[in-house]
UniProtKB/TrEMBL annotation:
UniProt source species: Streptomyces machairae
Entry coiled-coil feature ranges: none
Native organism taxonomy: Bacteria, Bacillati, Actinomycetota, Actinomycetes, Kitasatosporales
Top-level taxonomic group: Bacteria
Protein name as annotated: SRPBCC family protein
Amino acid sequence: MEWTGARYADTPTVEVRTWVDAPPDRVWGIVSDVTLMPDMSDELQSVQWLDGAVGPAVGARFVGRSRHESLGEWETTSHVIECEPPHVLAWAVSDPAGPSAVWRFRLESKDGGTELAEWMQMGPGRSGLSFAIDSMPDKEQKIVFVRLREFERNMTVTLAQIKKLAEA
């Protein structure tokens, strides 16, 4: 990832891709089970569907609990905003109209397997990062850059875990 000098209000994004030697339906089975994600992440600790939901559908909600050594522990409610099996799963964190983040998995049939992409956007709604920026506004661009790099590293690990599971 290149230094962009992005500010939080710019809703910066990061995307990671990998090719998986498995068909999209198999990869979708893993990606769409968000309760598996804490096993693939140092930060995300647990995920639980809300309102009786047992899987993704537009409008379904889940609560995620996370931990980060600099940001502490927190809990967010996410809202599924796109669900097109076996191609797209996306959710908005907190308020779908002004999310603190948007996350999206895209799956595409390619070369006898699946090209899998994970994408995320910061903001435009406030997040835990907003408090760090509020306390050090002169360091906003560095804070955003460092957090995007963390997301990129974590997403790379997540995709590697999904690939391993799907190819097993």
